[in-house]
Amino acid sequence: MLIFSILIYLVSGKLEIYTDGQFQNVNYSLANFGYIPYGRSLSGYILMVKELEERQLDLCNKSNIAKQQELENLWIIGRIGNCSATTKAYVAQQLGAQLLIIISTKQNVSNGMELKNDGMGFRVHIPTIEIGKDDGEQILKNLTEIQDSVLYGVLSFKDSKRVEKPDVVLFMTLNDKGGYKFIREFEQYYKLLEKNARFYISYDIERWDDRISKYNIGNKDCLGGGRYCINQGGEGRLVLEEQLRQHCIWINNQSQWFEYMDYFDKNCFTIKSYGACSGESWIRKQKVIDECVENSYVKDSKKEREQLENVIMDYWVGNKSLSGIVYYPGVLVNGQPYYGNLDSINVFENICSNMLNTTVCTALQQSQDDSPSTGSDINWAMIAFAVVSCILFGLFLFMCYRRRLKIQMQQELGQQVNEMVSQYIKFYETKNEK
């Protein structure tokens, strides 16, 4: 069997592919869904499944495709189109793949995120990458033209730009429940890493360049005279004001920010109620929060407050334009967008993969590895509880049956005694008459 060795490294957005002693650099795009094993490597066999070949490798339905069981570490390759990338990844996952490679219709793909999450990415637990058309067709050619050929690949997610304290930016939006869930789950990892990384937050915003009107527009979706906007059907200004309050809470006390975000998610449901609902939180009532919001505006006595520039919102605008973050909520680690499902443990691993000193990371992973698994204990406990419950219930039924049987026997015995007494009395009376 002829084996080609393909080594792929995540270095400067390139794939280094080694084939039969030769290598080439290939651009790739990493999908924004699935589980990305940051700080680790994947290896596997790239096979072109026969059923996929007959269907032009569209991976849109697994109904007539047999699950591949002959190899433990399987990478599946397919072409883009006919269905979403998340559907293809989910089908590949069900077929037993550890990685999905999608061949683009473009000759070259960028290093950015081209395979987007259509909302169903939560089902996908494997990484997905997209490669250019020519590179993909070359892999298919190697698989089809050379008899019994197998491609073996190694994909490394180890970041080569480790620093003492990586910068981590959490990009938030107020209208996504998944973001609040992530914040709740990520708080424990933040507490572990707060001394080993620099954390920042940023919020969703749009900057409108309207110099013709000199930023004097009274748009209800905007602040700064039309500089800073969020399209919320006339309620964008309320969203921006709440985001300012939340950012000031972060500046004042980051631990309180996590607590406030949990409160806000559970109590503030409509945009119109943001102001009143926020004011009921003791964290928001602190005087320093109002002072922070006011001081964020660039003072100009000739302009109303709604027309002033704002340094915090300028910071959001700059982050959005330079970060490469397309979808909110999101995470930026060391200047690189986080890819994959927004999962707290996966983000933690991504941050750790960018740190020079990973003592805190390895200590946590070691404690998790050393801690006994409670899954089987819980199962045995539930089984024992069910068995004991069944026995007790059986005893209860038996006692009830025994008591009922005893009562029934007493009734029958009493009835028989009464009949015998009646017969005796009748016999005695008959004898006296004679």
Automatic annotation (TrEMBL):
<keyword id="KW-1133">Transmembrane helix</keyword>
<dbReference type="Pfam" id="PF25011">
    <property type="entry name" value="VSR_TRX"/>
</dbReference>
<keyword id="KW-0472">Membrane</keyword>
<keyword id="KW-0677">Repeat</keyword>
<dbReference type="InterPro" id="IPR003137">
    <property type="entry name" value="PA_domain"/>
</dbReference>
<feature type="transmembrane region" description="Helical">
    <location>
        <begin position="380"/>
        <end position="401"/>
    </location>
</feature>
<dbReference type="GO" id="GO:0016020">
    <property type="term" value="C:membrane"/>
</dbReference>
<dbReference type="InterPro" id="IPR056858">
    <property type="entry name" value="VSR_TRX"/>
</dbReference>
<keyword id="KW-0325">Glycoprotein</keyword>
<feature type="domain" description="PA">
    <location>
        <begin position="78"/>
        <end position="139"/>
    </location>
</feature>
<feature type="domain" description="Vacuolar sorting receptor thioredoxin-like">
    <location>
        <begin position="180"/>
        <end position="352"/>
    </location>
</feature>
<keyword id="KW-0812">Transmembrane</keyword>
<dbReference type="GO" id="GO:0012505">
    <property type="term" value="C:endomembrane system"/>
</dbReference>
<dbReference type="Pfam" id="PF02225">
    <property type="entry name" value="PA"/>
</dbReference>
<keyword id="KW-0732">Signal</keyword>
<protein>
    <recommendedName>
        <fullName>PA domain-containing protein</fullName>
    </recommendedName>
</protein>
